[in-house]
Amino acid sequence: MRAGALAGAGLIAGPMINLGRFRLFAGDRAPVSARALELVQRSMVVDMLGLLTLDWPKLWSWQRDPAELKPADFQRLRASGVKVFHPAVEPDDPQPYEAARGWLAGWDRLLQRRPDCFVRIESSRDFQRVQAEGKVGILVGFQSSSHFRAAADVASFHALGQRVSQLTYNARDRIGCGCFEAQDTGLTPYGAEIVSAMNRVGMVVDVSHCSERTCLDAFAVSRQPVLITHANCRTLAANPRCKSDAVIRAMAERGGVMGITAVAAFVSGRSPATLDDVLDHFDHVVRLTGVEHVGIGSDVAADAVDPRTGLALARYAVRGMPPARRIFDLAEGLIRRGYDDRAIELILGGNFQRVLTALWGPGAAAGPRVVAAG
After folding, report:
1. How high does pLDDT run on average in the chain?
2. Is the pLDDT confidence value at 6 over 70?
């Protein structure tokens, strides 16, 4: 009965190969335990930097004409195990305000015309709909706040459906410093205004790409928890995109959650990076802060593979963690590391669901819908 239920949900394409272990997809060599499958199936799995696809023309075709999203495309999203995706991008454009509105208009079109597939995550109640209706949740945000021309724009973009905004990308801007800046001058007075405006409307403040001082300044200014949606631990991987122990502790002290990525360069200085290296980052955050402050921000899509070889693209080449089955391999690895079911459910998405619910309020509604032009 268990195998039949899992197959009906599209989670396995191959046969049961021995008692209590399953192949996820045809051609898989590594089986996954029934316990790992059940944990993924019942958990609210949230990937706080999860991309629907790395094939950008395909995504744009879905947004232009939502009928282009075929049943097989939706099934691949469901088969990933992710229930809620945060497919954020940087509005990398000479006119970021216009580019951001165009991006939101594309999501509006796709989500409004394909309610058979998607739930827009704008309030705490939407998580319940995802699980009850067997759909995929989309949490819309950006990996930069350069599209805000003034603090008043925060409320305008919130009305358009944006629920998360990273303060900076990798460089310095009007708000603060990115992680690749040689001179870290921290959050600017204008940046503090943006943080306060985000607090007022319930928009999530994200510091994943921010510099050390900008992170710490944001924690100090914000009246709400600040998230690190997708980064890793600098103690384990000496990369500017990784966070110091001081930043991780400060984030947790204020109620935040940190999502761990599957980007090889952020996982390990060695090649190849491995699933065990990824698990080390989860362990490290748990030791620093407790299991309540870590989650998933993989920064990857299930199709992050070379079509010629079927192997993960170099950026996402983590041995033992192919992109399409990253959630299941992670759950299996956490089981091996001795985490109990409650802890694994928190890591898979319970922690991010908790903090988002706290930011929005348990009965928060999305508010009036404003349709983005574009």
Report:
1. 91
2. no
Predicted TM-score (pTM) of this structure: 0.92
CATH of the domain at 142: 3.20.20.140
Which residue range(s) make up the domain with 64?
44-360
319 touches 275 (CB < 8 A): yes
Residue 162 lies in a domain: yes
Model confidence band, residue 3 (pLDDT cutoffs 50, 70, 90)? very low
Q: For residue 29, which amino acid is it? A: R
Q: What angle do CA 315, 332, 276 make, to 5 degrees?
A: 45
Residues 6+ positions from 136 with CB-CB distance below 8 Å: 74, 77, 78, 82, 83, 84, 85, 117, 118, 119, 130
C-alpha to C-alpha distance for 349 and 366, rounded to whole angstroms: 21
Alpha-carbon distance of 179 to 239, in angstroms, equals: 9
Look at residue 17 and tell me if it is in a domain. no
Whether 300 is covered by a domain: the verdict is yes
Counting the structural domains of the chain, the total is 1
In this model, does residue 23 exceed pLDDT 60?
yes
228, β-bridge pairs: 258
What letters, b where the CB count within 10 A reaches 16 and e where it falls short, cover 147-182?
Answer: bbeebebbebbbbbbbbbbbbbbbebbebbbbbebe
